[in-house]
Amino acid sequence: MSETLPPLSTGGWFRWIWRQFTSMRTALILLFLLAIASIPGSIFPQRGTNPLKTKEWISGSPTWGPILDRLGFFEVYSSPWFSAIYLLLFISLIGCVLPRVATHWRAMRTPPPAAPRNLARMQSHEVLDDADATALDRATEFLEARRWHVLRGESDGTSWVSAEKGYLRETGNLLFHLALILILVGVAIGGLFGWKGNVIVKTGDGFSDTLTQYDAWGGGRFADPAQLPPFSFTMTDFRVEFDRAVAQRGSPKLFQADVSYKANPNSTSESSTIEVNHPLEVDGAKVFLVGHGYAPHFVVRDSTGNVVYDDTVVTLPQDGNFTSTGVIKLPDASPQLGFDVVFYPTLQPGSIVSGFPAPDFPATYLAAWTGDPGLDTGVPQSVYKLDKTKMTQIGRVPSLLPGQTWTLPGGAGSISLVGYERWASFQIASDPGKEFALVAAVLALSGLMLSLFVRRRRIWLKMSAGPNGTTVIEIAGLNRAEGGDVSADIAIITEAITGKETS
Amino acid sequence: MTPAELAQASNSAIYASMLALTLAMVFFAFSFAAGRRKPAVTTTAEVIESEGGAAVITRTEVIDPIVPGRRSANIAMSLTWLGTGLLLLGVVLRGVWAGRVPWGNMYEFSITAALGILVVFLGFSIRRDVRWLGIFIVIPALLTLGLAVTVLYTEAAQLVPALKSYWLVIHVSAAIICSGAFTLAAAVSALALLRGHAERKAAGAEVTGLTARMPSQERLQVMANRIIAFTFPLWTFAVIAGAIWAENAWGRYWGWDPKETWAFITWVVFAAYLHARSTVGWRGNRASWIAIIGWSTFLANYFGVNLFINSLHSYSGV
What we know:
The structure holds 2 protein chains of 2 kinds.
Chain A lengths: L8 H13 L2 H15 L1 H4 L7 H10 L3 H7 L9 H30 L14 E8 L3 H11 L3 E7 L2 E8 L2 H26 L1 E8 L3 E3 L7 E4 L12 E11 L9 E11 L7 E6 L4 E3 L2 E18 L4 E6 L3 E2 L6 E7 L6 E8 L18 E9 L19 E10 L4 E3 L5 E18 L3 H20 L3 E9 L5 E9 L7 H12 L5
Antiparallel strand pairs in A: 1-21, 2-3, 3-20, 4-6, 4-19, 5-7, 7-8, 8-9, 10-11, 11-12, 11-19, 13-14, 14-15, 15-16, 16-17, 18-19, 20-21
Helix pairs in contact in A: 2-6, 4-5, 6-8, 7-10, 8-9
Chain B lengths: L2 H35 L4 H9 L4 H9 L6 H29 L7 H22 L6 H17 L16 H36 L14 H34 L7 H19 L8 H24 L10
Helix pairs in contact in B: 1-4, 1-6, 2-3, 4-5, 5-6, 5-7, 7-8, 7-10, 8-9, 9-10
């Protein structure tokens, strides 16, 4: 701009800003911002983990919903402001730590500074007045054997030893901060190359790991859905038990899925049991049991008397007692039919919810609809929802028990409840960055412990001639960490010099 | 013993412990009030503290009649030991009754957390004279126990499948020790703030009032720093252990579940504390406030997330 300004100005300003940015104060402020910015994600439902609730929240609050959505309150941890805070924090961290790595590297290769003139002013101070002339040699030998950095010298006619130890404190500190960056790298690897999918499998049914078999699948930018590991499994049995004691009635006691699996189409089949905390690890992926429910079995005949449906329908639990809902869509029946299904594992007559999660008294509520379920419009539809815009209800039945048949009004056909099966939902996930992140986390923890538990301290010894030809040794020390104390170090050195126990 | 007898014994031990702790609280309060009356003896109390090991006992004998409230503080300490022993018995019996580690629901977490607070305090009291701190430890422990036996009480039940893992022992025990240590650090920090206020008011003269018998503000701050420096790595460990467990149970090691989020917030706040301690202008009162905020985020996580927010960690079984 102006030629009268000194040429260093821009660079100077930049350096000043950089210094401010990498200062501890900035780090502090960014840490606070990070803590505060994390809070909304625990209060508002998050799209990533709970898309349904998020949708409900937004539609339930027409004023605030869209505004908060625009501001990223339903995807806090990937929102621009949250990302900005942690990226700034990490840049500040790098800017602070890298120069310190260089400084520390030099400090470790430099001997400690010379002993100060007046040792009596130090934190801890001892005087031995009956030492002999070799005391400093012994002290040096003792300190070097214990990996102290030692410098010997003479000034003002006294010879001295200066020793420093505890460099690991700063090493640990730097390791901790660098390992935090590595954790972020591990998270990023998982985010880019990892994938996960969900699938519901009924007892007796199988699953093979291809994209089309998943109910939902999501992967990182570099995760290739065409290259999924080619394993497959069949769920041979599923067991559930619920607590019947009064205290925690209805809470699950056990759920286990027995599977037989193949790592690839050519390998031999093996069997395993998947339960919570015991996923199946196969071919780099992990199969987790995440949920379960009921699939009632129906037979439907249409007006012509033909069987148009003979299958189990997956119903999704809506409450802790497994009141479960699902739908049947029969666009090819004559007339076109649709059913709302509510399955009660334990029917409580007169109530619209199940009384217990186990199938003590199973029954279904049914509502029958005729008309076009809108399956050929090309618009993707949920298999758990009936599009009723072009349908009309023809009747309902509050409780159909297994073995019972409901004849539909108007001669539209009939529906019978044959029984029920169980289904289990599995999450299948692969995170190639998790081992990396774990190693980084362990490094961070190790660094942290070094930086907090190792004490950086200096010890000085000075030898001078005392009265009557004796040798006087002064020992002093300084702990550079706050509130620290070097008297223990001084005690063992004194002991090493004099050969006597001090206490 | 039959299960019913075990249950009865566990509950009785916990009630007896609460009785002992309540008495301890009363005696701590006595000693506190007595300390207010005659602040002149502060210096002698300081001397005792700098002595190490066996010397303390002989010195106390001499000073005992002089320092007001010392006797009731000693009675209070004995009662705290008794209460802690009874509580330990209650927690162990609870575990025997349930046939597993006693960390299956919020009642059990709470009684163990109260035990954690007391054990950390008593552990500290072996090394140094922290009788002045007693009342600030016994009160939160009693509040936690009171809440546990009234609001949170549940019969022992089997663990839900999600908790059946050896990680329960590793992850939860680390978190419980942290709960005790964070409480201690917050109490010491709050006292540092009070004491600092009194010191400024005294303006160089002898400090009077409630905080007269306590160590100097600077020493309180150093003490809080030490506790947090010990606890922060343990908390880091608890979070990492939780992440490993989460990976094994839910298929991801970090998913911003509310419990995880608040554990992270606590971690960040205490990280800020450690940074504040080495930042000019932040070492003093501001650092103390940060320690108190950190403890509050821990409480928010324990009570708020367990009771009010729908989280994967909601095993509270209240």
